[in-house]
């Protein structure tokens, strides 16, 4: 894992981040979200790799992948969710939470949506999510989990005559109560050990890169789906897709090379600091070569 993540970091340094994000996302989704059931361990390891790059390269890596997963799940779910693609995509979301790429609010959002519609497919997906992240949700936000359980109980009561077989509904409620009471024994097949082992590996791989910074994305499910209209505000430096905040002439000024001659040492330092776009390099070189903050401010305004 260390070797693969290191090679991918090198590719991120040498190529456009957009191209790398697109390629990585396509590769991971092809591997982890086909129409057939996927081994849980395989999905975990792929998401672990993504989470390492999210910490070492930048949060835009995880954000780009998350948006692709959410949009694809939304499209497949609305089309009826035949096959196992929905389950695979939801498992990816669960492990993005397990490996600290997203915060709990996103997981609660999708669970509330599933319980809100409360079909047989929704119950299966809810059980899948709770089996993967239920106890972590309890640890991170026990109050929201209790509210979710109350909502599920109310929905189950309303839909008592809706299903011919009530077994899955009862099992879902029993699973939720086991989570509420922190009783792992009542959840068949629950084994936290594989995730815990990979979390330890993750901590070892990102220890020097992340320090004490919380890189988890705090974004709602609907916020991701409406990103084209409202903008990707959770990504630093992301452009708003609505009315442009600067005109094209200003943009061209930003893309020009820094005024004056920049030494090779400064450009090499910019490369080491992952300044891999013209705008980033220009700002970095300007700040590094300015006499003081006033000089830097004036040069940046130009």
UniProtKB/TrEMBL annotation:
Ranges of residues in domain MIF4G: 5-183
Molecular function, one GO term: RNA binding
Keyword Hydrolase among UniProt keywords: no
PANTHER family associated with the record: CELL CYCLE CONTROL PROTEIN CWF22-RELATED, NUCLEOLAR MIF4G DOMAIN-CONTAINING PROTEIN 1
Transmembrane annotation, as ranges: none
GO cellular component: nucleolus
UniProt family annotation: Belongs to the CWC22 family.
Predominant subcellular localization, coarse grouping: nucleus
Superkingdom, natural source: Eukaryota
Protein known as: Nucleolar MIF4G domain-containing protein 1
Pfam families in the record: MIF4G
Subunit structure: May interact with EIF4A1, EIF4A2 and EIF4A3. Interacts with PPP1CA and PPP1CC.
One BP term from GO: ribosomal small subunit biogenesis
Taxonomic path: Eukaryota, Metazoa, Chordata, Craniata, Vertebrata
Function: Plays a role in targeting PPP1CA to the nucleolus.
Keywords for the protein's UniProt record, in alphabetical order: Nucleus
Subcellular location: Nucleus, Nucleolus
Keyword hit for rRNA processing: no
